[in-house]
Amino acid sequence: MSVLRFTYRMEIGYEEHVGRCHFTIKCIPREDARQHLREMAIHISPPTEYSLGEDSFGNRQIYGCETEPHRQFVFEITGEVEIIQTDYEEEAREEQTGMFRFPHGKCVPGPALTKYFDSLDFTGCEDAYASGMMLMHRLYQDFSYVPGTTGVQTTAEEAWQLGTGVCQDYAHIYVTLLRMKGIPARYVCGMMLGEGESHAWAEVLCGDRWVGFDPTNDRPVLNHYIKLGHGRDAADCAINRGLMWSGGAQWQNISVCVQASDDYLCRSVTNKP
Q1: Closest to 19 measured CA to CA, from 63, 62, 64, 66
Q2: What is the per-residue pLDDT for 128?
């Protein structure tokens, strides 16, 4: 067993005052066989009331409405997650596996991914776990991590044609190829020790259990990861969604810090339109 301490902070600035803003934030770690949320604290500025709930995938979410005029919105969550020494995320529920078996949204193959899939040799892969491992190693070799070449709307097919992308693209491509093999797979959003932004990976249905694979770093998901949510693609578990009135141009700054034992790793990233 190990304990990870985390901070996720999001600041959104606006060119003009926002008169009203509805928000939904999916940034509370899930409860499953691999992790347990021991404590958390939430801060929102300007101060406003909010509610807690779950979406249709079981992802925990915070939602509310900010009615005070503001030019900056700040959300911060801190807490501790106990990492349990298991090699799987959770046991599968049969009625929920079908949706992760078929192409959807950003995980729909085109000609380029179909050609790549046809070149893969699954000989010797006796089960879904072996197929997941082989495909993870191949994708790590055949796709390049280059920030700034793709965006949040980039599909798996588009990223593969470019040949470069970030963790979201690795996860989308990986999930797409597994589903082409007939293996249920789902996209995962979370945090990782040493990462300064949210991270993305995938889970593969291996027998009756969901097992995590990180194709961006070519390794299984074990005790350095905090899972926030999962879905058919990135859109299903997007951390931040909102609807605002006025505001004009905006900027966003995200800072994620993860701490384990005496190690503290922190980095910030700023995105501007």
Answers
A1: 66
A2: 97
